[in-house]
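Risk register update: the risk of archive-format incompatibility is retired. Evidence:
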Amino acid sequence: MFAGKYILSPMVRVGGLPFRLTCLDYGADLVYAEEVIAQRLLKCTKIFNETLGTVDFLDEDGGVCFRTTSKESDKVIFQMGVSDPDVAAQAAQMIEHYVAGIDVNMGCPKDYSIKGNMGAALLTQPQLIKKILCKLISVCSKPVTCKIRILESEEETLSLCKEIESTGVAALAVHGRTRYTRSSHPCNYDIIQKIKSVLSIPVILNGASLDINNRSDMTAVMKKTGVDSIMIARAAWYNPSVFRDPEPVSVREAVQKFMKYCIDYECPLHILKYTIGKFRGAFKDNQSSLEVTRHIETRLIYDYFGLGDYYSEVASKRTGDIQEEFQKKKRQKLGEDYKVLQAEITPTILQSFRGMIAPRQILNQWLEANGFSKPKYWTTEHNKIFTGFLQIDNDTYAMEGNFKNKKTATQAVSYAYCLKHHIELRHYKTGARTLPPCNCKCKSGG
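Archived output:
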């Protein structure tokens, strides 16, 4: 399964369903999904999305944690970030029936992975690696693989690879850089050759995008290093048709295919903009790129690539939003009857409190001073746009807006509540009150 393959590497934010299907259409043999933290998956609810023809795993806020379809079920590898063998096993059993294999991320150098003892943090813990992989292999009906980076010394790297092989994994993917090496530095082909020479399982080379412009380049790198398969990330991001034999199509043509899948499978706006921003040659010039990616209306972006009418046609035929329905049911289950607060809140307003006491802290202090119970805050999310909720005693309030993270959403609902109840706020830049002193009977003391 992992020999002689041209594979899409896992990429955070990029490797969603639309991008994976695009790469498969252009000749990728296998596609790795973007990493999902195992603990997050375990909190998800599985939904059969009849509108899209997908299986969705929705997190507690209704956001899509993982989405797949039968079009890729025998080609997609699910990658998890995990540091606990039992958690890994539970996550694998939850997802294995919808994917072709399970992979463990042991190479991510990002802070969130390292702090969670995941990704590259595992490279110096061979015994924990063995426990995780052995546990997965014992419970999974699908092949188990892992993806690592090389270590500082050849001896350490080869020793780790042999330990991993001993667990019984189906294949090993190796990124030819250390956790500290930048992507602009060349891939270490020499150590990859040595790894292949000491292992009997398939070895997948990763990290060669600097040397790849087409499928022939991938074949050449495989022959040079003797590896069984090759896995690419950035080269595919620049043009997903890089897998096409014999040559890629134009970037604009590839982008249109990708964007059509985005429409078909409701790709969130921020993912769409993030992904097309890296396609080389997708825009006429830098100015066009900036103008398009700054659009906040999805239709305008699709218009630029000649897909505006298709977007409108597909959108008009859809009768429901499964994520929104999921959130509604969740709110009904919780018995929430909330009041929507009205206020004009911009990022600039919230940023004006930077370095000073934030609205949420001001509100907490005011509530405590005036005899209210401790407030509760939470958020819901749809297409990565968050709504903030605030519960004070038996009353629940919500603040809707274009808030991009949980922190901003809870600060916004706090700010709106303070405005409504004339609670004094001071701006960092001006030191002025947000409202003139009030004469009502509220407890603000304004």
